[in-house]
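Standup notes
- HV: blocked on the assembly model, inputs below
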Amino acid sequence: MSDSDAEAALVARVVARDQDAFAELYCLYRRRLARFLGRFLGSPQVIDEVINDVMFVVWQDASRFELRSKVSTWIFGIAWHKALKALDRQKRDVPPLPSPTEVARPDDGASALEIREWLGRGLDGLSPEQRLVVELTFFAGCSYQEIAQIAHCPVNTVKTRMFHARHRLRDILVSLDAVAREKTP
Amino acid sequence: MTSTETANDLERRALELLPWYVNGTLEGDERELVGRQVLASLTCRKELERLRRLHQLMQRDDAEAVATDREFDRLMSRIRASEASPQSAAAVGRRGFPWMPYALAASVAASVSALLWWGTLGPSVPHTYETLTNPAPADAAGVRLRILFAAGVTGAEQRELLDSHGLTAVGPPAEDGVVTLAFSKDADRAVIVAALKGDPRIQFVTSPPGSDGP
């Protein structure tokens, strides 16, 4: 049985109001959602609130889920919708983010953690829509068709957003290449 | 269209699809196209390496440990409060579940897989079946917990942990590793739950429907 089938079976049990199944689904997604939402929402408290909202909708709307998409696509779609709402609420309080070109490249001796932090700051310079596409592709492992479902947009829009995201990240991508070369003996 | 233009066009399409070639979700003709272009085009190969590096960095899980139990309890409180409203239950009742037969079939398949998996432990992990699934204590009717062991906890460690709390597994683990446990009615449930929640070898503790807590 694939992971997708196992998750669909869990959702079937959630529809039947099986709290154990819901707990298992929560366990499966809590960490993934925290990581995913953490890319858009800074505060851990806000992330916890949004995860709570997402899983509340999962419980309430499990019977509406249809097997036309994967469970992960459905749940990430809810998470994205909730994240956008939370971003709207946060907008007034958040300082402007640096553009990727303003982010200084780490030293040659930078640790893997420093490189990831540097990359994170670069990703912060993308628009939420561009970042969604990058996160769902490289973190969540979604196909461009699944991303289109989650973002409620045509597949060509997904490709266009990825194109612009890569363009904005170009300096970082090239530098990642250079750092990797320098670290290779 | 000249042959040069066609080659450029193919390269452009391959470059556009590279992110999904890297994450392994590209299929069929598109996958073949990118594969061919990566072999033929230096630009594609360079971009592929960059995107692979980006993919590796973003795949690393640097999320901090999360207080799963506390947050889940909070969520369930919210759900219970919302379901105190009759509209909620009625709304659920009105909806049909057209996909339920498929999902139930998948659920049954998962249970069978779990049972088969459980039964195959014998030769390499002697006595695992007998030790973890001893019959529940005679006085344990209705006293149940469900737990998920953390990744990397061995069968021997699981047995030792359950024995130390007087717990007995009453069946094979579910498809995602959740184990249902029974314990004596005389045992202090709160103490056991607190001990399990504080044990790093346990990822999650919950109760079956209709039971108290944890």
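- HV (later): unblocked. Chain B has two domains: 7-58, 104-206. The beta strands of chain B are 144-149, 168-169, 178-182, 202-206.
- Next: hand off to the docking folks.
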